[in-house]
Specification:
- The complex is a heterodimer of chains A (about 220) and B (about 210).
- Chain A is an alpha/beta fold and about 220 residues long.
- Chain A has 2 domains: about 150 residues, Alpha-Beta Complex (2-enoyl-CoA Hydratase, Chain A, domain 1), CATH 3.90.226.10; about 50 residues, Orthogonal Bundle (Lyase 2-enoyl-coa Hydratase, Chain  A, domain 2).
- A 5-stranded parallel beta sheet of chain A has the order 1-2-3-5-8, with helices on both faces. A 3-stranded mixed beta sheet of chain A has the order 4-6-7.
- The longest helix of chain A has 16 residues.
- Chain B is about 35% helix and about 15% strand.
- In chain B, strand 2, helix 1 and strand 3 form a beta-alpha-beta unit.
- Chain B has one domain: 2-enoyl-CoA Hydratase, Chain A, domain 1, CATH 3.90.226.10.
- In chain B, the strands form 2 sheets. A 6-stranded mixed beta sheet of chain B has the order 1-2-3-4-6-8, sandwiched between helices. A two-stranded parallel sheet of chain B has the order 5-7.
- The chains are: A alpha/beta (about 220), B alpha/beta (about 210).
- At the A-B interface, helix 4, helix 5, helix 6, helix 7 and helix 8 of A face helix 2, helix 3, helix 5 and helix 6 of B.
């Protein structure tokens, strides 16, 4: 499935190697990337600039899957992704005191916290789901499968649409609503000029699956 | 032919706007958007209107925009101008009275974006919520990419918007997409209760702030 880029965070996979692999997927045919964190993952560091680059500048939607305990650089990486999923026994640790500003800001955005609110130190899978920090929880051990399910859905959609949807959500959130609504309108008008949008409507009317080409 | 959108104001000043195209699951077409524009202006200008309630006739609140009309706009430039001049969703967000959505069955696309401009959303147990636009190579265009992440946790909103996959009432309640879920037989009573509560107290808007 060349449409789904896959990355495993395991021992020996450095932050630079991950950044390089992501850049490669963005240049190729991938429409979405799935990142699975293994128990022995050791990115070393994933600073706030890289967290922000993931949600703000990286063009493809990224789905992050984890089991067990997620903390440190791997947790920071997860915060930068678009969709997070985990197994039922997982937990995420967020060390608010040692976070850099951009990572803390992203954490607050995802948890709906104000500037003065304390970042919770640890959320179980259930708590993370309640808070919307993860959007899907599967049985223990199934996070990778759950993530691939979400990624397959994204990969089947119009690839220009999913890129612009990502941009609309995260960049729009920083704008005053009135401006953000105009931003959305302009992105939809841009999509109206694409072959994919015409194919999507045609396929729907003909009751067949769409064949999106990214044009 | 029956009116595609019904409009009524009761003696308490509660306006009810009913999507009335049940044979098409209340798919919102241009004629309906024109009627919504007209009725929302009436709600804004009529001094007696104290609350607005939205509902859908038939099996669903609304399955979304009428896709058969997609691609019929004269030009992108004209589309943009028309959108800015007749901003139905912006008008909705700016109404100074409480807005309540009575939701059941499919609440997809514009059928979710309209309720996202409201202050209170009450749903029947059979309700399903989704922004499936990316399945059409498109993105939500009635404010959904902005109102959903301001209503539910933005990571959850990103999941719905990027995958196009719907959620049920359990997720909707968990993330605050709706404030209350009841059996369908009790939906009218629950909506009435919410309207009564809003009429009785000082009104604090709960919709995304313009």
């Amino acid at each position: 499935m060349s449409r789904i880029g896959a990355l495993a965070l395991t021992a020996g996979v450095s932050a630079d190697a991950v950044a390089g692999a992501l850049a490669g997927y963005a240049e190729g045919d991938a429409r979405v990337v799935v990142v699975e964190a293994a128990a022995d993952a050791d990115l070393g560091a994933w600073p706030g600039e890289r967290v922000r680059r993931l949600w703000r500048d990286y063009p493809l939607p990224v789905v992050f899957a984890f089991e067990g305990r997620l903390a440190g650089a791997e947790a920071a990486f997860a915060l930068g992704c678009d969709i997070r999923v985990c197994g039922a026994e997982a937990a995420i640790e967020l060390d608010g005191a040692s976070m850099d500003d951009l990572t803390a800001e992203r954490t607050r955005t995802l948890l709906g916290l104000g500037a003065g609110d304390v970042i919770p130190a640890r959320l179980t899978a259930g708590e993370a789901l309640e808070a919307g920090l993860v959007s899907r929880v599967g049985p223990a051990g199934s996070a990778g499968k759950v993530a691939r399910g979400a990624a397959e859905a994204v990969a089947a959609r119009g690839p220009i649409a999913t890129r612009l949807a990502k941009e609309a959500v995260w960049r729009g959130l920083d704008q005053p609503l009135e401006q953000a609504l105009r931003f959305e309108t302009d992105l939809t008008l841009l999509l109206q000029a694409t072959k994919d949008r015409a194919e999507g409507v045609r396929a729907f009317m003909e009751k067949r699956p769409p064949d999106f080409t990214g044009e | 032919m029956a009116e595609l959108v019904l409009f009524d104001i009761d003696d308490r000043g509660v306006a009810t706007i009913t999507l009335n195209r049940p044979e098409r699951l209340n798919a919102i077409n241009m004629a309906m958007r024109d009627l919504l524009w007209e009725y929302l202006q009436a709600c804004r200008d009529h001094p007696d209107v104290r609350a607005v309630c939205f509902r859908g006739e038939g099996r669903a609140f609304s399955a979304g925009a009428d896709i058969s009309e997609f691609g019929t706009a004269p030009s992108l430039w004209e589309s943009r101008r028309a959108r800015h001049e007749r901003d139905v969703w912006g008008l909705l967000l700016s109404l100074p009275v409480p807005l309540v959505a009575r939701l059941h069955g499919y609440c997809f696309g514009a059928g979710l974006e309209l309720p996202l401009c409201c202050d209170v959303r009450v749903a029947a147990e059979d309700a399903r919520f989704g922004l499936p636009e990316v399945t059409l190579g498109y993105i939500p265009s009635a404010g959904g990419t902005q109102t959903l992440p301001r209503t539910i946790p933005p990571g959850a909103a990103a999941d719905l918007i990027l995958t196009g996959e719907p959620v049920g009432t359990e997720e909707a309640l968990r993330w605050g997409l709706v404030s209350r879920v009841v059996p369908e037989a009790e939906l009218d009573a629950a909506v009435e209760e919410e309207v009564g509560r809003l009429l009785a107290g000082p009104f604090e808007p709960a919709r995304p702030a313009l």
